[in-house]
Amino acid sequence: MTKIYHFSGTGNSLWSAKEIARLIGTPCELYNIGSEAQKDEIIIEAEAVIFVFPSYAYGLPLIVRRFAQIAEFRTQYVASFVTYGSSPGGTLAVMRRILKKKGIAKLFFGRIPAVENYLAIFGPPKEKKLCRRVLMQKKATEEAVRAVLERRENKVNTFRPLSSFIALLFSFGVKIFYKYYRVGSECNGCGACRKICPVCAIVMKNGQPQFTEKCEHCQGCVDMCPLRAIQFGRVKFNTPGYRHPEIDFIDLVR
Q: Which residues, 6 or more positions from 188, have their beta carbon under 8 angstroms from its beta carbon?
């Protein structure tokens, strides 16, 4: 049995996780880290375990970090893959430090380039670049599967001071970013943002979404709002959103 744990806001990591599962075949199971992290006890027992997650400001998303730290691993092989737009920075270094303490016999770490989806800085992706990055992601995901099937092992450099510093600043920002989301008058209270939030950070009050401190700043709500009624930073109302072109909205529903 191979178990694949993924965290995804706009579908990049989810697509790679689903593709890895498809190419590996059965028996293979997919798990949403956002949902699994809500459990009181996390025991991961499998022949092989695969993690697929994005890089947030060159670091590991906080919920992925907490999940890996809390989980009890009953396996001898774990492969971790980071999806990234501009650079994964020291994301894999953080994951390696966590997993090494778990006493797992074999570890592998890989990179999967994907579409840059942080609209607040980079804006909506251009069509030509989007197509190029999707193709790169497909090829890298296929290579990830080969690495897992061959039970490859490797190491990553854990000394990444600049990445660690930037990721630390981002982790402080995440604690307050949720206060700066704005909902426009176009909002009709459909609740799409609440349904796709991977960490249950959005609640509906009086027909309007309210953002809470659980927010991981994945920006899925901004990208997936059907009326483009959520604003954050340079992502103004009506700014085109992003979703992996081969992932449907229903795939992201928690």
A: 227, 229
Two tokens, residue 140: 């890298």
Cβ-Cβ contacts under 8 Å for 81 (sequence gap 6 or more):
16, 20, 50, 51, 52, 53, 109, 110, 111, 112, 144
pLDDT in tens, 100-154: 999 999 999 999 999 999 988 888 899 999 999 999 999 999 999 999 999 999 9
Q: Which residue has the higher pLDDT, 38 or 111?
A: 111
> What pLDDT, in 10s, does the model give residues 148-199?
999 999 999 888 899 999 999 999 999 999 999 999 999 999 999 999 999 9
Mean per-residue pLDDT for 235-247?
Answer: 89
Dist. CA 155–CA 253, nearest whole Å: 34
- How far are the Cα atoms of 41, 106, 238, 254 from residue 150, in angstroms, in the given order? 31, 12, 46, 32
The residue written with tokens 């039970």 in the block is 151
Q: Which residue has the tokens 């497909």?
A: 138
Quickly tell me which residue has 């193709």 as its tokens.
135
